[in-house]
Amino acid sequence: MQYRLATVLALLALAPRAQASEAPISLTASDGTGLKLVRLVARGVVQDPLAFTELRLTFENPEARQIEGQFRITLPPGAAISRFAMRLGEHWQEGEVVERQAARRAYEDFLHRRQDPALLEQGAANEFTARVFPIPPRAHKELIVSYSHELPNSSSAYLVPLRGLPEIGELDVAVSGLDLPEASLKKSRFVPPSDFSVTPPRAGRMGLRSGDMLVARVRPIEKTEPEPVGSLLMLVDSSGSRALGFQQQVALVQKLLRELAKSEPAAPLTVASFDQGVSVVYEGTIAGFGDGEAKKLRAHGALGASSLEQALRWAEGQLKAKPRARLLLVSDGVATAGAIGGQELISLALKLKPAGARRLDTIAVGGIRDEAALQRLATAGLERDGAVIDGGLEAAAIARKLTAATRSRLEVALPGAGWVWPKSLDGIQAGDEALIYATLPPGAPVKLSVGAAMISGDRAFASVERPLLARAWAQARIASLLEQHERLADGPGERAKLKEQIVALSVQHRVLSPFTALLVLETEADYQRFQIDRRALADILTVEAGKIAILKRASDRPPPVVEKPPPLPKPALAKKMAGPRNGDDEDGAPAASEESVETGKAEAKEDAAPPPAAEAAPESRPEPSTVARDSAPAAPPAEPAPLLQERRRAAIQIIRGEDSRRAEREADAAGASEPWPRGADPYVGKYKQVMKALASKEKAKALSLAAGWHEEEQGDVMALVALGEALEASGDEARAARAYGSIIDLFPSRADMRRFAGVRLERISAREALALAVDSFAKAAEQRADHPASHRLFAFALLKQGEPRRAFEVLERGLAQRYPSGRFAGVDRILREDLGLAAAAWIKAEPGRRAEILSRLSKAGGTAEEAPSLRFVLNWETDANDVDFHIADSRGGHAYYSQPSLKSGGELYADVTTGYGPECFTIRLPPGKRAYPYRLAAHYYSIGPMGYGMGKVQIIEHDGQGGLRFEERPYVVMVNQAYVELGTVKR
Question: Averaged over 700-724, what is the pLDDT?
């Protein structure tokens, strides 16, 4: 490393880390397989108060299969990504800024064509996520990500985020800029103990100018009056995304209260934790909060979705019962459940005023944080505006800010300016600084005022080339429109218009926003197909020789790519049941054959290798379709998995006025005289250990294993699922619901993960769990209306909640939605019948509206459901893969994709081979004529690029008169060609 201490201080602490930190950069498969970061090249340019960073990342796929990767990067608050590129052969294919929903649809379209797409979008606040496909077996994937960001304070350092990364094969960092000699770091096989930090020389500089654009750093006030706390209600964020830093967060709370107790020991204090619910931790005085109370808060742990709505509603009621003058929110500000829009949360915060709260302050914690959302809450309109305080400060500094007054409505004025942002500053305290953007004619004097303070000085502005300042200016314009969208917009129409403006600016200036994404496609023709004019868009910023350079778009001419062949047709079941192929590992995962992974159906051929002897089927075994279906019931089949015996869970709920009940599932299975398909164990790794312990009724062991796994890997979805399973088995459904809610908190912008979390929450008996599932399904339907499961799961959860009218409306929209051609076989028929079931339930609830409801049903194209039926509907949350549904009756019948009907009655509508499902099997017979019991199973025929299969089978019984009963059986299958038992269905 090179240092020039006279002008720059570059620090990279070498002491061992005292605590685990979340990795700021990662690339993992959807099943949790981590890809190794073998090379990271970072180039930074600092033009204080702005900075630009370009990261070149090389990851290695350790798996012997092609996968889709999930790339995640946490950037400085307020950073804006402007470049995302993926290497294809010798060529860098550049991503284009596209409206978010259109980009998602295009990505999945090309994923199914087995081409090379990538999609990057803003996740929660300053976290950005990308889907990258394909990542070939045992191969490297190279990405470029670049972003601009601000250094808002004169003490702000420039950072390259490294802390928390595992060992990097090769690290190469170099940073330079105005008056800043190069600071660099080169290491091999290096585990970074902290971020790479450079504090640039300020030399009295106020800001930057280029042409008619300028940015200025201002400090509006130098002194504020004291404002004691008096009494305090503290809400501490304990949601799942806070897990990694929760212990440190609790320590901060304890240290802060000790500092406040020095001046106000007897001040009344209430401390509560919040996630998807609220729990009171302490009532007393500030001085009374000690080690025991901190221990109780730690024991509560960080689990669950984050509902700021729930926290604010609870606070309103709490303040009416036990008045407190001040409210303090310790949170990352990222709401993932309930109300998440700015206007909704502001209105909830305003209700605290008549409840007695005079001021609401926030402490921003965590690497991923939404400071804009926290600012909106702190300045919602109580008697006094609060402050947004950095949780990284020392406890004494935070206490000083909490006990100091704030100033608001400080108008920003610049004579001669065509545009200024922000127009005013709120919640400002002594020493606070802010950046002001403006357009001002070249040569015009800068006479800036903020409130009563005059700030001028043309010499304090450095003249710079335009590119970086222009990007920051565009980012500020987008921020101004986002603030109007979240705080000031009058109704949905105005919000829609503001969204259009934001998208237009984002595309024009190549600055990512919450409503856009960066989409990488494989060929020029691919972009043209989606009407993306690449040559009309902004040039790309890069770093060359320590300076910002322009990558001209005219030279961006991708090479042609040969189309890959379509998948082969699916073989018969006998071929599929042949067992693991030659080269499969011991868990049944496919070996390193790119063709087998991509084509899926080409895997089981005539010359497929036989299964291991222990699982081999007799060669003389007939095809299931040749077995007689009209014989007398045979002896019961093999007992289902012990786990299914243990669980006995399936909640059955009768809607509208009837009590819900949890049905005991009998362990004895009925079955078929024909062999039931068997394959490899569906589970692997730590999840397999937990499920094995549950199957053996070792609940304490299972809980210990799951809790230990979660403690080690707090962002691992399967660890959360295992923890939820173990907690359910142990009878702790409240904590199990929090474990499943954590999946929402970790992946708020992923519709598939929201749906999967909702599926798990539905199985919990508490009403609060179902309400959270409904909320999660509703948000998934907003995010991905082009997925049939979004509408189906939302609607049926509403039916279980006793809201058939809303369920009907959701399914109306789902049936009217256009879905990608060839993606969801049979879904039109399923949705028509779903709408009929919702109509029948609605008629039962409101019989006086029968004619109106039937008219709407007919107009929407629904199918009237006026006779008894039993439906089994299978769905899963992985794309571009194939899960097969198997159903057996008590008379030896076995239905599956190539034999879709049972002679005893019942039909499998279609075979979905492209991911997600649904697959539906319907029996249109009265209960007395059904061939009970039915046995269900799912077969992971083609694992695809996304890894583990996670979903549910839903059992829906209709009495023919609008009475519906439901049973939910969620499942996980982790191994290619494995079967997972879904239990039996009895009369």
Answer: 95
